[in-house]
Amino acid sequence: MGARCSKVSLCWWPTNPKSNLNDSSDLENGESLPGFREYSLEQLRVATSGFSTDNIVSEHGEKAPNVVYKGKLKEEERWIAVKRFNKMAWPDSRQFLEEARAVGQLRNERLANLIGCCCEGEERLLVAEFMPNETLSKHLFHWENQPMKWPMRLRVALYLAQALEYCSSKGRALYHDLNAYRILFDQDGNPRLSCFGLMKNSRDGKSYSTNLAFTPPEYLRTGRVTPESVVYSFGTLLLDLLSGKHIPPSHALDLIRGKNFLMLMDSCLDGHCSNDDGTELVRLASRCLQYEPRERPNAKSLVIALTPLQKETEVPSYELMGILHGIPSPKQMVVLTPLGEACSRLDLTAIHEILEMVGYKDDEGIANELSFQMWTDQIQETLNCKKRGDAAFRAKDFTTSMESYTQFIDGGTMVSPTVFARRCLCYLINDMPQEALGDAMQAQAVSPEWPTAFYLQAAALFSLGMDSDAQETLKDGTSLESKRHKI
């Protein structure tokens, strides 16, 4: 349910984007989610394409101790997130099943709900709703297009408080390691709390695995998580929302005591947040971060304090977040490859990294019929242009790279779809989307079954504001990718 800085997330079930912000309805009697069930290991293996690394959405990828994959249950046409624990976790299968079933009874629109589990041999897996729009960490700390708006930050705080209040009302007040990676955004851009943190620690129910600078002081003394510890972690998240950074509570409290709390505010919020609003959120954060647990507010008090602060309550979250909106039917939904994901987000840095990593392997089989005369007279200079372009591309000197690739292409002695793809990215980085689209189409003309050409066309179309065409092109690229893997 987590995600790499570039991925992460959980769910395609619709919610009403204009619902009352004060209403975090209990979905226990609703029909939008199935009841909790046990899945076989084979079902989850098929859903995740054999636990493919391409489907990993954990923030730390395959090196994480417990890896999260996105997958699709074909029999249910449902997207899921699958958390696979390492072999040493949950040695007691009965304890694991009891915990999973208990958490699986929760149903709320503020949660990325747990819908199943798997317990076979030494394997322990959890199955949850899949959230397609990344983590709070991604949108708050690693944003690319726009910083998170103040009304959306306030909404995140309220929705999270409502999630905690719901869990408390159902006897699940403990949450392990509450942080910005545990908050995920659904298809409507609404924040949801990952249900994975509601599971007790695999061995003793005590572990609180987080950076010590952000750990509740009582946990350092006793080694136990309490409801008050969760409120302390909520306070650290309020600091994240205020500052746009992950600031240690001790440093933040020093600023607050010194009346320098405005230094906490994210500079991106200048002119968009009143001093009164900022002061109120700082005051609430400092209450949550009290050293003595009994002096902290409870979840219900957090909801009461945050409700009157809400702004632009009629504006859907996806508009505030600046994300594409639309709930595709199950047949329309596709699992994008890393390159497809990067192009869909116009993440030019990620596109560059992937093209550089793949190199020229997709040029294999491209015919370059050269006469001996051409070879002796022109080929060396053509190859030198390509080498200069590659060196500049590697060094992120995209202007020089673009010029060198242009010389290679204009030379006319060799054809390379990868050179067109690389120059396409150079054009995108230099804000020349029309030229980028032309190169992506040239790459497709040279190599008609090459998914990369379609993905880059989609990126160019997104840059030109042609989102519908871009989405269709992404689907074409994904379809070609699927055919490749089946061969």
TrEMBL record:
**SUPFAM superfamilies reported for this sequence:** Protein kinase-like (PK-like) (SSF56112), TPR-like (SSF48452)
Protein kinase domain: from which residue to which, for each copy?
A: 54-310
Q: Which reaction does it catalyse?
A: L-threonyl-[protein] + ATP = O-phospho-L-threonyl-[protein] + ADP + H(+); L-seryl-[protein] + ATP = O-phospho-L-seryl-[protein] + ADP + H(+)
Record-given protein name: non-specific serine/threonine protein kinase
What membrane topology does the annotation report for this chain? Lipid-anchor
Specify the species.
Erythroxylum novogranatense
Q: Name one GO molecular function term.
A: protein serine/threonine kinase activity
**Which is a Pfam family this sequence falls into?**
TPR_BSK1_C
Q: Gene Ontology terms, cellular component aspect?
A: plasma membrane
